[in-house]
Specification:
Layout lengths: L6 E6 L8 E6 L12 E3 L11 H14 L4 E8 L6 H18 L3 E6 L2 H11 L5 E3 L6 H9 L3 E4 L9 H6 L7 E3 L8 H12 L3 H15 L4
Parallel strand pairs: 1-2, 2-3, 3-4, 4-5, 5-6, 6-7, 7-8
Helix pairs in contact: 1-2
Length: 221
C-alpha cells in the first residue's frame, strides 16, 4: 500500500510541525533551525535597513553554504512599506545573485511593485524558480507573471469567495502554483479543501500535483 502524499505548505511563519504536512518554514535571522524540515531565509523589505543588510547578506550566504537553508526568502519589493524602492531593488538583486550561486528557489513578497519585479526578471533572466507568495492580485498581473516564468502561491484569500486568488486559480497551469498558510491562523488542510473544491479536483490528486511541483523547483537542494 502506497503512503499518502503529504500536504505541502510552501511558505509559513509557524514553527510548529504538523503530522502529514511538509512545510517550508520562514526563519528569522539569528533563530536556530534544524535540518529536519525545509527552511527559507531572506531579507524582507519591511525590515531592510542600511545598517543591517550587509551583515544579513553575509549571514544568509553562510546559511546557504551550510545547506540548512533550502530556499531564499521571503524577500522582495513593497511600495507601501520599507525603505525607498531603489534600495529594495538593489538588495533584492544581491539576494537573487545568492540564489543563483547556491541554486535555491526564491520566495518573493511583492506589494504594488509587480511592474518592477517583472522588469527585474526580464533583465536578470534568472534560472532558479521565483515564487510569488500570497498572490491575490488581478488576472492580468497573474498572466504577466506566468509569461515570465514565475510561480504563484495562493493562501487564505482562497477562503474568501470572489477574491482575486480564487479567480486566478481557475486558469493557473497545474505545474505553476502552490498553496500556503503564511502567518495566518488557518490550517493548510482548509486551504487545500477550498482549492480542491474550486478546481473540482480530487484532494489526493491536488496534493500529489503540488508535491511534484515542489520536488521540481527544489533543484535537488
Amino acid at each position: 500500500m502506497m503512503a499518502e502524499t503529504p500536504y505541502l505548505d510552501i511558505h509559513t511563519h509557524h514553527a510548529a510541525v504538523s503530522p502529514g504536512v511538509v512545510s517550508v518554514y520562514n526563519a528569522r535571522f539569528g533563530e536556530p533551525v534544524s535540518g529536519n524540515r525545509p527552511v527559507s531565509l531572506g531579507i524582507h523589505p519591511w525590515y531592510l535597513t542600511e545598517t543591517e543588510y550587509v551583515h544579513q547578506l553575509a549571514l544568509l550566504e553562510q546559511a546557504l553554504q551550510s545547506g540548512v537553508v533550502t530556499a531564499l526568502g521571503e524577500c522582495g519589493l513593497d511600495r507601501l512599506s520599507g525603505p525607498p524602492l531603489p534600495f529594495q531593488l538593489r538588495v533584492l538583486h544581491q539576494q537573487l545573485d545568492l540564489a543563483e550561486a547556491y541554486r535555491v528557489p526564491v520566495i518573493l513578497h511583492c506589494v504594488r511593485a509587480f511592474p518592477e519585479l517583472i522588469s527585474l526578471a526580464k533583465q536578470r533572466k534568472n534560472t532558479v524558480p521565483l515564487i510569488v507568495h500570497g498572490y491575490n492580485a488581478n488576472e492580468q498581473t497573474a498572466r504577466q507573471l506566468l509569461a515570465h516564468s514565475f510561480y504563484l502561491s495562493l493562501g487564505t484569500a482562497l477562503l474568501r469567495p470572489g477574491s482575486n486568488a480564487e479567480k486566478c486559480l481557475a486558469f493557473l497551469p497545474s505545474d505553476r502554483f502552490f498553496l500556503e498558510t503564511d502567518d495566518k491562523p488557518v490550517s493548510i488542510e482548509d486551504i487545500y479543501a477550498a482549492a480542491s473544491r474550486q478546481l473540482q479536483q480530487p484532494l489526493p490528486e491536488l496534493k500529489e500535483q503540488l508535491m511534484n511541483n515542489f520536488q521540481r523547483v527544489s533543484l535537488g537542494g
